[in-house]
């Protein structure tokens, strides 16, 4: 069984090698050759400068981060104002309790 699979594998390799030689003799490039990969990679390059395409990814990321930070600043400002108002209410309430204690204390 193992001999058959080795023999079949050897035949496949020989078939592939002979077909590769036939393609190259006709001047056709193979689909998986590095020559095709190089030319396809060179065609993908853009000749336009990146400024004309719009903001870069870094600029977009910075703008998104700036918006998030502005929202956080607004949230913290509101929380601070509420805390200050709460402290002021507690101060007034304790002052009122002290005055009431002085009036009703005998």
TrEMBL record:
One of its GO terms (cellular component) is PAM complex, Tim23 associated import motor. GO terms for biological process: protein folding; protein import into mitochondrial matrix. Residues 59-93 form a coiled coil. It holds the Pfam family GrpE. This is GrpE like 2, mitochondrial. Belongs to the GrpE family. Keywords: Chaperone, Coiled coil. GO terms for molecular function: adenyl-nucleotide exchange factor activity; protein homodimerization activity; protein-folding chaperone binding; unfolded protein binding.
């Amino acid at each position: 069984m193992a001999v058959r699979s080795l023999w079949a594998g050897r035949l496949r390799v020989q078939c592939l090698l002979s077909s590769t030689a036939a393609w190259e003799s006709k001047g056709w490039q193979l689909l998986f050759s590095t020559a095709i990969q190089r030319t396809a990679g060179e065609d993908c390059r853009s000749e336009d400068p990146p400024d004309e395409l719009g903001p870069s990814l870094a600029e977009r990321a910075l703008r998104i981060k700036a918006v998030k930070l502005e929202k956080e600043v607004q949230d913290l400002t509101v929380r601070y104002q509420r805390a200050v108002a709460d402290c002021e209410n507690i101060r007034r309430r304790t002052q009122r309790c002290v005055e009431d204690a002085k009036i009703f204390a005998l």
